[in-house]
Amino acid sequence: MKAQTARASRHPLRIAAAALVTSTALFSSAASAATDAPLGIAFVYLGNPGDAGWTYAHEQGVKAIEAKFGNRIKVTRVENVPESADSERVFRDLANRGNKIIVGSSFGFQDFELKVAKDFPDIVFEHATGYKKAANFATYDVRTYQSAYLAGLIGGYTTKTNTLGFVGSVPVPEVVRNIDAFTMGARSVNPNAKVKVLWINSWFDPGKEKQAAETLIGEGADVLIQNTDSTATMQTAEQKHVHAFGWDSDMKKFGPNAQLGACVSNWGVYYSHLVEQVQSGTWTNAPTWWGLKEKAIDLANINTAAVSPTALKAMQQKRDDIVAGRFDPFAGPIRDQSGAVKIAAGKSLADADLLRLNWFVQGVDGTLPK
Predict the structure, then answer these.
(1) Which of 1, 98, 115, 158 has its CB 3.0 to 4.6 Å from that of 47, i.e. a possible disulfide?
(2) Does this model's pTM top 0.85?
């Protein structure tokens, strides 16, 4: 995977307020054209699908819609595109080649993709994890913090040292959400649990990820999780005989004994919805943020040899509660690292606040870089 440091800004820091624009009129031509010719849909990848992380997960989603829609769609992929002005050339070329949907799968593409979108008002542009909007430009994401909470719950039951380790990528709200959710999940079943955080300041750096994992293990962590894109953390856990969780995709083959489960993103659920909306002429530019309820994410492939029946049952119940709307990981009371109440009982963080989250919950052993 290339140009990973540029992804430090990939995730949303705020929500732009804009009126919802329905696009039945704008994109009905795309829908009618789909009856005569395959719908052209192009995906722009920052990395390559072999990374087993972020791009790999998106590629699995693309393969899913290829299998579902067959010759009704024509997919184009462009890999290893840097989050720079060069990406504008890629987006513009894909638009000129007649694609009706163009998807940028990383935050740093946002401004370059939006610039091109304004020049091609009859094409649908979609962007992963961003916050900006235009009549033909929308954003989408998945609620990874929900699967992180479930992983924390499993980890809280499994740890023998009461110390869990988190290999952090870059300190943006998405990563902070996942650290907080993982910690709260662990402490919901094990109040003595703490989560040590080490930052590598990169989305993909196997060497630094391995070093961070080794350091966390040396400090007593016997359960690891990551918010990075390589398999180095899982491989290190396997080598050191501790446990870990896969991230973005199932990483069991890299740690058959180590993996407790995998926080899997299922982008195909949304991509299928996107194709159907454009084909039917009902697409809108409303931002989409799906989670367990929509089967866009999950904690998958639980290692029942290492996870107790009690832990598995508790995790399944909490998953059901989230899906049914009976439980929200960010419902109060929640205290920050200092012990101060940040979310009162009976209150929950709104999406707008989740998207700019910048504080750690009680139980996190680490700091946010300034």
Answers:
(1) 1
(2) yes
